[in-house]
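Retry 2 of 3 after timeout on previous attempt. Resubmitting structure tokens to design endpoint.
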């Protein structure tokens, strides 16, 4: 077209922009977008293409600057562009802009995607954590109240969608595994206050993370809170046993494990191996034997690791008590 002195149209530039976006070539995409701007304000599709490229490549500073430019030039956002803009605001911590866009979306009747709602919830939870670390108690209380209100509204919308509860619990697990336990706990509490039982996997992941961070008090608080609000099952018990072991409270871990077994809850083989290993280190061979009997008589399906852990423990016991008969019995079993 250029060699024949044919001037590209807006449509041609739009098509070319999508090509550069697909190739993830930011420099070329920006050149084409600047050429588009000579025809006036680009349409929302072209704006969304460039913005999604910035987000995909992690160029949040460019994305934020681009959003400010769009807002300044009063470009009207369609549903798709709203979602992308909101994602950038959430990832960049642009709370004020996110609030404005959220109001615009609500006023315009725009239905948010689940992924967008998750980004909003995560943003407010993250902001609340950072505010809680500030010194000014008055501004802290006000900001936390605002975040809680906005988060609650978005969380309720998420819970109204199919599978919304599971999506919220996925976020709790994600935050916990990333070590963002304050945010995970806050979201866990919000679900409980709304009368929604967090999935056992979400509660147990957070308890295990507390154990890894040697935060036994927080793990115990969450365990007690979970048991008060809803009936707890095997995965949460197993997580608490794991946390107690990691924090060195072996005796309490053993008693909780036996209580769990007496109540008929499933016993996780990984938890069994961890508990037996810690009991062995502390020379508590009778407790290990009790667990072995319970597993064999309770027909708990053990894996190779669990069997090897039992054998190792019995070897330790043998070296100290010359209990060869019992060792051979368990190896045959």
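Retry 2 succeeded. Sequence:
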């Amino acid at each position: 077209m250029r060699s024949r002195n044919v001037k590209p149209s807006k449509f041609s530039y739009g098509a070319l922009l999508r090509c550069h976006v697909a190739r993830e070539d930011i420099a070329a995409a920006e050149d084409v977008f600047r050429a588009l701007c000579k025809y006036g304000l680009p349409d929302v599709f072209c704006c969304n293409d460039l913005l999604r490229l910035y987000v995909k490549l992690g160029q949040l500073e460019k994305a934020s600057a681009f959003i400010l430019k769009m807002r300044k030039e009063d470009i009207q956002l369609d549903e798709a562009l709203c979602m992308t803009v909101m994602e950038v605001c959430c990832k960049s911590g642009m709370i004020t802009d996110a609030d404005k866009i959220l109001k615009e979306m609500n006023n315009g009747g725009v239905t948010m995607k689940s992924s967008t709602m998750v980004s909003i919830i995560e943003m407010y939870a993250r902001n609340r954590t950072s505010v809680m670390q500030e010194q000014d108690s008055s501004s802290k209380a006000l900001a936390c109240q605002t975040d809680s209100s906005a988060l609650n509204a978005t969380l309720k919308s998420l819970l109204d969608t199919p599978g919304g509860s599971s999506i919220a619990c996925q976020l709790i697990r994600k935050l916990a595994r990333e070590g963002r336990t304050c945010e995970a706990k806050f979201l866990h509490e919000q679900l409980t206050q709304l009368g929604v039982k967090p999935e056992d996997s979400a509660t147990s992941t957070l308890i295990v993370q507390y154990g890894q961070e040697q935060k036994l008090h927080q793990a115990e608080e969450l365990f007690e809170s979970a048991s008060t609000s809803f009936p707890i099952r095997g995965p949460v018990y197993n997580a608490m046993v794991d946390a107690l072991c990691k924090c060195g409270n072996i005796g309490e871990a053993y008693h909780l494990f036996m209580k769990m077994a007496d109540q008929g809850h499933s016993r996780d083989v990984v938890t069994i191996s961890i508990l037996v290993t810690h009991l062995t280190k502390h020379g508590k061979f009778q407790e290990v034997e009790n667990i072995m009997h319970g597993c064999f008589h309770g027909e708990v399906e053990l894996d190779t690791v669990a069997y090897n852990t039992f054998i190792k423990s019995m070897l330790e016991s043998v070296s100290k008590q010359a209990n060869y008969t019992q060792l051979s019995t368990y190896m045959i079993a």
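Attempt log closed. The radius of gyration is 28 Å.
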